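Hi U.,

Before I forget, here's the chain from the pilot set. I'm dumping it here mostly so it's searchable later in email.
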Amino acid sequence: MALLLFLVLAAVVLGIIGVAAEGLGYLLIIGIVVFVAALGLIAVRWSQRSGRRPLR
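Structure:
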């Protein structure tokens, strides 16, 4: 969980720097890619967790 939070925080920071700094638009793109990767990781963990419910 800490890794996911770190990835989202890094994406936000890179996005802010990419928007604010002149000529560093590539940081915004990298931030978006990191954010999408974090969302994908969350989706994978969420789908794995839902499959472990015990049958009654």
